[in-house]
Each structure stands twice: as structure tokens, then as C-alpha cells.
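Sorry to interrupt, but I need a hand with the structure work. I would like you to pick a protein and set down its sequence and fold. Please put the record directly below this note.
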Amino acid sequence: MSWTTFLSFAGFCCAACALAASVLAVQALRRGQARTDALLSNVDALRREVELLASISARTGRRVQRVEHEYSDVADRVDAVESRAPKAAGAGSLDQAIEWARHGAEADKLTEQFGLSSGEAELVARMHGRKRTA
């Protein structure tokens, strides 16, 4: 075998190896591109979910603020009711009104017995009264 034949054969082997390496590199790039596309799709889906959650959170935050604003004076009103309710025998405090509601007393009875306003008595009856079945 001559040197030129040997060099030609070696060159052919190098070219074949380079071609095989190129094919493998292209396949790896395609797999990488497919993986990148899938990840980008997942990122888009996650971004949409985060935007949805942010929207829900903002609406919930506004609702909580509205409820806090509407009921901010409840503690003051409870204190006022407790302070004006007579502590003498025969009459009682808000705690007693709650107990009566738990035992089935209606709002009008709580108003009469404990000096609650109709709204306060209705609230106590709804919050602490017996559950009605339909």
C-alpha cells in the first residue's frame, strides 16, 4: 500500500467521522430545540396561570378591604351593646343573649330581654342560633 493510498483512506475516514459527527450534532440541536419549544410553551402557560391568580388575588383583596370597611365598627358596637346591657338580675349581657340564641331564642325575644337593637339581635340569632333545616 502506498502512501497516497494510505493518506486517501485516512482522509476518507476523517471525512466520514466528520459527517457522522455533523449528523449527530444536527440531531442533538433538533432535540434541544424541541425541548426549548416545550419549555417555552410551559412558561407561557405558567405566565397565564400567574396572571389569572394575580387577578383573583386582586379581586379577593378588594373584597376583603370592602368587608373590613363595612364591618370595621362591629367591635365598637359590641362593646356599646355590652356596656348598655344591664348587669342586674333578670337581664344580662351579650354573652347571655348568645346563650339564649343557642337555645333557640328568636331575635325579637333577644331585643326584648337584652335591649339589643333589631339588627344586633338578628345578627346574634343568625350567628349563634340553632341551624334551621329546610
The CA atoms of residues 88 and 114 lie 11 Å apart. The two ends are 104 Å apart (CA to CA). Helices lie at 3-70, 74-84, 94-102, 107-114, 118-128.
